[in-house]
From TrEMBL, chain A:
Catalytic-site annotation from UniProt: D304
Keyword annotations of the record: Hydrolase, Metal-binding, Pyrimidine biosynthesis, Zinc
Gene designation per UniProt: pyrC
Protein name per Swiss-Prot or TrEMBL: Dihydroorotase
Pfam families assigned: DHOase (PF12890)
Organism annotation: Mycetocola miduiensis
Positions bound to substrate: H59, L60, R61, N91, N277, H308
Keyword Secreted: no
Automatic annotation (TrEMBL), chain B:
The family this protein is said to belong to: Belongs to the aspartate/ornithine carbamoyltransferase superfamily. ATCase family.
Pathway this chain belongs to: Pyrimidine metabolism; UMP biosynthesis via de novo pathway; (S)-dihydroorotate from bicarbonate: step 2/3
Protein name: Aspartate carbamoyltransferase
Domain Aspartate/ornithine carbamoyltransferase Asp/Orn-binding: 160-308
Top EC class for this record: transferase
From TrEMBL, chain C:
Protein name as annotated: Bifunctional protein PyrR
EC code(s) of this entry: 2.4.2.9
Gene3D superfamilies: 3.40.50.2020
CDD domains with a match to the protein in the record: PRTases_typeI
Record-linked Pfam families: Pribosyltran
Motif PRPP-binding boundaries: 98-110
Organism ancestry: Bacteria, Bacillati, Actinomycetota, Actinomycetes, Micrococcales
GO molecular function, one term: uracil phosphoribosyltransferase activity
Name of the top EC class for this enzyme: transferase
Catalytic reactions on record: UMP + diphosphate = 5-phospho-alpha-D-ribose 1-diphosphate + uracil
Domain Phosphoribosyltransferase per the UniProt entry, residue ranges: 9-149
Transmembrane residue ranges: none
InterPro entries: PRTase-like, PRTase_dom, PyrR, PyrR_bifunctional
Length: 447, 315, 179
């Protein structure tokens, strides 16, 4: 099994053509006409070489909900989508609110080998919103947690939110807020507006998101902390963020691929694959989110990959679970929504899907770009491909994708994690091969 | 007609056809022998996930007068509440050979999910879903209005030129939604009157005028005033302060009743809260169609079942 | 597809006059006679026969209509039929002689449905059947009492009855081998 790859003729995000040598887990060399002894050659003519993608927001479901996803299947989905690092949200069972749980998640990721799994710690014990979790213990655990979030639930109590923001300053942490005012969204089923009124579905007002973001940027300013806003979904939230950034408040924000492409009109089908939290919004919100991503008001794209078992979606709308799988489709969906429109180029994509999420998440093994000496995180993408997205494109356990039947551009051809191919020729590498390489690498690191 | 899920997607011709067939059904209900052999051998399942004896017996009477076999499947307190899903229930009904499923469900869109899921081949008839639609109620309301206005000459007629005012909890009312679409499709002009808290926040696509003042609305002399049932629990959610204030501002009390033209049609889908949204005098006045609505409900549901179960079942 | 005219306006008029005489003869006058046409064209024919009988007998007579849609046993085999109104003369049908009038008699299933429909409305003394065209191919033990013309036909053929009140002209044609 060779650990050396010679990628020839790839286009870097800025358009320059180069060969890339991956060796000993690193990007060893860039240039033209390169050769490397014993290397596996990969013809990358016509392909874009992106730095390995980083997803700040995924739900890997393990421990506790292994029928939906495991760290192994979730990172396989990540690799298939071109990701080399994923942040795992804390709403597992048990909740990731102790050093023990986050270390377990970290180990599971290391064993699987498909992508770096960086656990996110819960802000409050059991995500209950009442008492701070042991943030310091998680920060100094082997998992080195820096991002804390009660995602799925909003840290609603303003005092608790203030304290959390202050507390994580001691280890340069960040609180990632799921902005949803709970009282304004009791029983909410979809975006509140023209469509919810017609369908008779309980509305989920934009103000429930915007009011929390407004409160939290002011809190962050007041205590001088950094705040991250998960899955921004409304034009009003964008306005609040733009104002906060202009004021110098240390806030960052993410948008999901589905909020960049889909809108609430889809709910008219009552097809529960379109049920998600935050809900799909109006077409004008979609346009505002694209613009905000282009002008930097929104910093990054994160998938909020949320796998569910079939029965959680194969039911009436009210009974269905919120969430969509998104790792496998993310790059193509971003391509379709903001690259094809000319709003973002591949350099921007490298920023919003790799360097910035790594920076916000405080990890250094990813997001350094494709430069000699950087860790071997590379994704080869064919931007000229096109396919009708279907279940065959999914490699995780969840099949709750809203993109089935859509023609999406582009295709991930290869993914290299720590210098080892997890995807080649568009196909996932065998589980055993990837796990074996990951084990060898860990042992090597110990020597 | 493959399914009857909403009035929003009924076109004018289909709506008139439904009402005309209901006229034929009503004619047969004047006879001594009320039962028709039309749906002999067909199985109609009443699948009720919500208690509604009134609606269920109306559908049951309609199906039985067309000689269908009727199975009542009350899903409340049965296996369904023990975690059996809509899908499992649908597949059970499919295995039993149901030809039509009349479904009442607390979740908006559940009938549409049933119709599009592929779990079951039967024709699906929406008997009220969440706060979405209640198409047969709107059809029987339209039928009742048309009959009052055009009498024996109703066949083929629309509701052109009629002004209908619907009063009450629009936000949570499937009856209001179905009536808005159907009555406007039939040519009526619809005005909604409600506390601002009980109107959806964005009604830009609704072909209606919305007001908050009942007296203003009644002063314009509507042909039809339809009062909606107000649920007591709305008070607790702060939609309005208390029932006294609601009644004073949005109730059809005796004073308002007497100011109406005597030809005005007063409607209520039932069950009524007498003294809250409608006074006893208004409910019992000759202007009220409350009892006709019940009678016409059977004819309209016979028509819906007939059109659902006859004809080419391909597609 | 070729259409062959087999019955002209005058033929239709002659046939209806003959049927009218035969009805009066068999009923020994116009008393207690109720004509019920089966929609759509049977109703027109019943109206015409009623007019002829009124002329002959000197007593005005009115025909009704009997919709049989709801009594058919083949609902699922055809596009949905919209029922037509049933009109029964005010005197009712109890104890009367009902003459059912239809344009084309074919399988007999329509008449079977009509007999069921009559049974739900009342109890006539007798029920008779008049048809403008009898094309054969009966599937039930039903035969007409009064016939305008026997027209043996192949099952692939289509018989079209046109009446001026509906179609603008009186004629009967056969479309052969409509494929
Ligand atoms: Zn979230």
């Amino acid at each position: 099994m060779t650990n050396t790859y010679l990628i020839s003729g790839a286009a870097l995000p800025d358009g320059t053509r180069t060969d890339i040598v991956l060796k000993d887990g690193l990007i060893a060399e860039l240039g033209t006409g390169l050769s490397a002894a014993g290397a596996q050659r990969i013809d990358a003519d016509g392909l874009v070489a992106l730095p390995g993608l980083v997803d700040l927001h995924t739900h890997l479901r393990e421990p506790g909900y292994e029928q939906s996803e495991t760290v192994l299947t979730g990172t396989q989905a990540a690799a298939a989508g071109g990701f080399t690092a994923v942040f795992a949200m804390a709403n597992t069972s048990p909740v990731a609110d102790t050093a023990g749980v986050v270390e377990q998640e970290l180990s599971l990721g290391e064993q699987a080998g498909y992508a770096t799994v960086q656990p996110i710690g819960a802000v409050t014990v059991g995500l209950a919103g009442e008492q701070l979790a042991e943030l310091g213990a998680m920060a100094s655990s082997r998992a080195r947690v820096r991002v804390f979030s009660d995602d799925g639930a909003c840290v609603w109590d303003p005092v608790l939110m203030r304290r959390a923001l202050e507390y994580v300053k001691s280890f340069d942490g960040v609180i990632a807020q799921h902005a949803q005012e709970p009282r304004l969204t009791v029983g909410a089923q979809m975006n509140e507006g023209a469509v919810s009124g017609e369908l008779g579905l309980t509305g989920w007002p934009a103000v429930a998101e915007e009011s929390i973001i407004a409160r939290d940027v002011l809190l962050a300013e007041h205590v001088g902390s950094s705040l991250h806003i998960c899955h921004v979904s409304t034009a009003g939230s964008v306005d609040v963020l733009r104002w906060a950034k202009a004021r110098g408040i240390r806030v960052t924000a993410e948008v999901t691929p589905h909020h960049l492409l889909l809108d609430e009109e889809l709910v008219r089908s009552f097809d529960a694959r379109y049920k998600v939290n935050p809900p799909l919004r109006r077409p004008e919100d979609v346009l505002a989110l694209r613009e905000a991503l282009a002008d930097g008001t929104i910093d990054i794209v994160a998938t909020d990959h949320a796998p569910h078992p079939v029965e959680s979606k194969d039911c009436e709308w009210d009974a269905a679970a919120n969430g969509m799988v998104g790792l496998e489709s993310a790059l193509s969906v971003v391509h379709a929504s903001v690259v094809e429109s000319g709003q973002l180029d591949w350099t921007d994509i490298a920023r919003v899907l790799s360097s910035e999420p790594a920076r916000i998440g405080r990890i250094t093994s990813h997001g350094q770009g494709i430069v000699a000496g950087a860790p071997g995180q590379v994704t080869l993408y064919d931007p000229s491909a096109s396919r009708e997205f279907g279940t065959a494109d999914l490699t995780g356990k969840g099949v709750n994708s809203p993109f089935f039947g859509r023609t999406l551009p582009g295709r991930v051809i290869a993914t290299f994690h720590n210098g080892f191919a997890t995807v080649l020729d568009g196909e996932l590498r065998p589980t055993e091969d990837v796990a074996r390489f990951a084990a060898e690498q860990r042992m090597g690191a110990r020597v | 007609m493959r399914h009857l899920l909403s009035t929003r997607d009924l076109d004018l011709d289909t709506a008139i056809r439904l009402l005309d067939v209901a006229e034929d059904m009503a004619d047969t209900q004047q006879r001594e022998v009320k039962k028709l052999p039309t749906l002999r051998g067909k199985t109609v399942v009443n699948l009720f996930f919500e208690d509604s004896t009134r609606t269920r017996i109306s559908f049951e009477a309609a199906a039985k007068r067309l000689s269908a076999d009727v199975i009542n499947f009350s899903a409340k307190g049965s296996s369904v509440s023990k975690g059996e899903s809509l899908k499992d229930t649908a597949q059970t009904l499919q295995a039993m050979g149901a030809d039509a499923v009349v479904i009442r469900h607390p979740a908006s869109g559940a009938p549409q999910t049933l119709a599009t899921s592929g779990w079951i081949d039967a024709g699906i008839l929406n008997a009220g879903d969440g706060t979405h639609e209640h198409p047969t109620q709107a059809l029987l309301d339209a039928f009742t209005i048309r009959k009052r206005v055009h009498g024996a000459g109703s066949r083929g007629k629309s509701l052109d030129g009629l002004a209908v005012t619907i009063v009450g909890d629009i936000l949570h009312s499937r009856v209001a939604r179905s009536n808005v679409w159907l009555l406007t499709t039939l040519g009526a002009t619809v005005t909604l009157v409600a506390p601002p808290t009980l109107v959806p926040v964005d009604t830009r696509n609704w072909p209606v005028t919305i007001g908050y003042d009942l007296d203003d609305a009644l002063a314009s002399g509507p042909d039809v005033v339809m009062m909606l049932r107000i649920q007591g629990e709305r008070m607790r959610d702060a939609f309005f302060p208390n029932s006294r204030e609601y009644s004073r501002r949005w109730g059809l009390d005796d004073g308002r009743l007497h100011r109406l033209e005597p030809t005005t049609i007063v409607m209520h889908p039932g069950p009524m809260n007498r003294g809250l949204e409608i006074s006893a005098a208004a409910a019992d006045s000759p202007m009220s169609t409350v009892r006709e609505q019940v009678t016409n409900g059977v004819s309209v549901r016979m028509a819906a079942l007939y059109l659902l179960l006859s004809g080419d079942r391909e597609n | 597809m070729s259409a062959r005219v087999v019955f002209q306006q005058a033929d239709i008029a002659r046939a209806l006059t003959r049927i009218s005489h035969e009805i009066l003869e068999s009923n020994r006058g116009a008393d207690d006679l109720v004509l019920l046409g089966i929609p759509t064209r049977g109703v027109v024919l019943a109206d015409r026969i009623a007019a002829i009988i009124s002329d002959i007998s000197g007593t005005p007579m009115e025909a009704g209509s009997l919709d049989v849609t709801m009594y058919r046993d083949d609902l699922a085999k055809h596009p949905t039929r919209t029922p037509s109104p049933t009109r029964i003369p005010a005197s009712g049908i109890d104890g009367k002689t009902v003459i059912l009038v239809d344009d084309v008699l074919y399988s007999g299933r329509t008449i079977r449905a009509a007999l069921d429909a009559i049974g739900d409305i009342g109890r006539p003394r007798a029920v008779r059947l008049a048809a403008l065209i009898d094309r054969g191919h009966r599937e039930l033990p039903i035969r007409p009492d009064f016939v305008g013309k026997n027209l043996p036909s192949a099952q692939t053929e289509r018989i079209n009855v046109h009446l001026s009140e509906i179609d603008g002209a009186d004629l009967v044609s056969i479309d052969s081998a409509a494929r």
